[in-house]
Structures are given as structure tokens and as C-alpha cells.
Amino acid sequence: MTFNSILKGPDPPEDAHEYKRASNVMKLAEQNEKLKAELRAMTERLEAAERRQKDLEARRSAEGAGGAH
Asked: What segments bear the compositional bias annotation Basic and acidic residues (predicted)?
């Protein structure tokens, strides 16, 4: 190893490998954000469905209690 070899930096294959790795990391980060957004949307839909179900059950209970009197 010489002083000049240190100054010139890594060989091109190392640069290509690092670039590919960085590119893969960016793709994975984008996929992760997309999946988190999908999960948030699914969670919101599930919570809305659960609220509708509770409301429906409450109405049925109220109608049943009102009809018994």
C-alpha cells in the first residue's frame, strides 16, 4: 500500500458495490414506507368497521329493550 494508492480511493468495483447497496437500502426504505402507509389505511378501515359494528349492536340492544316495555 502506497500513499498514492490511499489517495486515489477505492477501486471501481467497490464503488459499484457500495452504490448497489445504497440503492438497495433506498428501495427497501421506500417499500417500508409504502407498507406502513398500507398498514395505517387497513388499521383505519378495521377501526371504522369495529365502530360500525358496535353502533349496530347498540341500536339492536336499544330496540330490543324498547320493544320489551
From this structure: 46-62
